[in-house]
């Protein structure tokens, strides 16, 4: 009987208190225009400059770093222009360029 009661309490709790979003889920992504730093990124990543997409999606904090703005000024779904090839921007592009055809996935 106790197992049933515990299961019932958990089920009711799950319905009454839906999961709260974590900071990472709530943060979302920002579209970062990388045209101004594409040459630097292609050098850092040792890829052809034509393989650098015009923009990529980054978490808000990483986009703020790449765009040289305060993260509080960016919201998920926003866009900004990269002012430097930050480590997080280069890492994101590195992951994308090694995932398949040698091209970073453009922002959606």
Topology:
Layout: H1 2-16, H2 23-27, E1 29-33, H3 38-45, E2 55-59, H4 60-67, E3 79-81, H5 87-97
Parallel strand pairs: 1-3
Antiparallel strand pairs: 1-2
Output the radius of gyration: 20 Å
The side-by-side strand order for the widest beta sheet comes to 2-1-3
Relative helix content: 40-55%
How many β-strands, per DSSP?
3
Helix/strand-derived class? alpha+beta
Shape by Cα distribution: elongated
The amount of beta strand, in percent, is 5-15%
Counting copies of identical and different chains, the oligomeric state is: single chain
Give the structure's gist in a few sentences.
It contains five helices and three strands. By secondary structure, it is of the alpha+beta class.
Describe, in plain words, how this protein is organized in 3D:
This protein has 108 residues and is an alpha+beta fold. It has helices spanning 2-16, 23-27, 38-45, 60-67, 87-97; strands at 29-33, 55-59, 79-81. A three-stranded mixed sheet has the order 2-1-3. It is elongated and about 35 Å long. The relative contact order is 0.20.
Question: What characteristics describe this protein?
Answer:
disordered C terminus, 3 strands, alpha+beta, 12% strand, single chain, 3-stranded mixed beta sheet, 108 residues, 44% helix
